[in-house]
Amino acid sequence: MNALSGGKIDIENLSSARDTQTLIKLLKNEKDLDSFDVLDAGTAMRFLTAYFAVASKKEVILTGTDRMQKRPIGILVDALNSIGAEISYENVEGFPPMKIKPFQKQLTTKISIPGNISSQYISALLMIAPSLPKGLEIAIETPIFSKPYIDMTLGLMQLSGIQFSQKDSVISIKSQEYQKSTQKVESDWSASSYWFSIIAQSEIGKKVILEGLKSKSFQGDNVIKEIARDFGVSYKFEKTGLLLEKINSDYNPLFKLDFKKCPDLAQTVLPCAASLNVDLEITGLESLRIKETDRILALQNELSKFNCKLTEPKKGIWKLDSSNFTANEDIEIETYEDHRMAMGFAPLALKTGIQIKEIEVVNKSYPSFWKDLKSFGFELIEQ
């Protein structure tokens, strides 16, 4: 948004996460580069695809890691090309890397896009809509996954002066300019979820205070406070931050959870539930197949090391069987180049010693994660 506005938006409390820093670096050096490497930052890939499609004054190449080149982007590219962008694939159709030419002429003002895909596709289109000569009307096909992220995007756009109208699942944005504003980035509820998991697996009376979280938040992942309450965790907003406390160990043996609006919480909640011998009936996992890794397969593999089973007995309905949870010593956790696998399983060290591979993956979203665990009392030995 700041780049599209020509630098009108002052941003405070920026994260040190690698994804954030990668996007900042690429935009800062936009004039000097012809090829842009987002590394493993999926958000940057989706947002920059849309950004360059309408804002670049020259032909550019957009690429990423080997894994990034296996993550589909065809739905977003098709939508952008139908609007008037000129995007082609360098290797495999539907996947990065891509060649993006300068925008010439808007061909349509109306597009339709599936809602059961990554919300980043939709956010990318929303943010560029005001910069299009004729604006844009986006019809989002139901069902809509990760809707809080769409609402977050619209809310932040509105704070920077963008007006829009919304009727059912159709969003209309006229051609207009982003206005000067100051925006303070919220602390990350997704990152906070690991601390909810830690407290859930701790003894009664254990506490932690998380700073910077807002009670009224755009983020869909703030639902972790309600989920963790069923795992015996109380929460209270105080002046210094959000106070978490373990208050009981009596759990319902079966919970039904829908991750449609908060898919990033799955890798926090499933290992936590497994360690507490809580079975889950789960929906809304579909988008996990196209994340940093196939997160469903990764969860199945690693949960099986604790004698837990994640199965799909009926299409779209998953079941976690935690009845045989076993915490053997020094279980090795593969992270699949995925930050959430490392952080989601780390709290299980409260049950047994574990070994986590590729610990640097946390730099993607929470660089101080291991340091924070040490400060809380975890013993970490790097090998």
Describe what this molecule looks like in 3D.
- With 383 residues, this protein is of the alpha/beta class.
- It has 2 domains: 9-184, UDP-n-acetylglucosamine1-carboxyvinyl-transferase, Chain (Alpha-beta prism), CATH 3.65.10.10; 189-374, Enolpyruvate transferase domain (UDP-n-acetylglucosamine1-carboxyvinyl-transferase, Chain, Alpha-beta prism).
- Helices cover 29% and strands 22% of the residues.
- The chain has 11 helices and 19 strands.
- Strands 2-3-5-4 form a 4-stranded mixed sheet, with helices on one face.
- Strand 18, helix 10 (339-345) and strand 19 form a beta-alpha-beta unit.
- Helix 8 runs parallel beside helix 10 (339-345).
- The longest helix has 14 residues, at 42-55.
- The mean pLDDT is 95.
Question: What is the CATH architecture descriptor of the largest domain?
Answer: Alpha-beta prism
The number of domains is 2
Q: Report strand %.
A: 15-25%
Order of helices and strands: EHEHEHEEEHEHEEEHEHEEEHEHEEEHEH
User: What does the overall shape look like?
Assistant: globular
Structural class: alpha/beta
Give me the side-by-side strand order of the main sheet.
Answer: 2-3-5-4
Proportion in helices: 25-40%
Mean pLDDT: 95
What kind of sheet is the major sheet? 4 strands, mixed
Query: Which runs of at least 5 residues are low in confidence (pLDDT < 50)?
Result: none
CATH topology of the largest domain: UDP-n-acetylglucosamine1-carboxyvinyl-transferase, Chain
Task: Let me know the number of strands.
Answer: 19
List the total number of helices: 11
Q: What is the CATH class name of the largest domain?
A: Alpha Beta
Compute the CA-based radius of gyration.
Answer: 21 Å
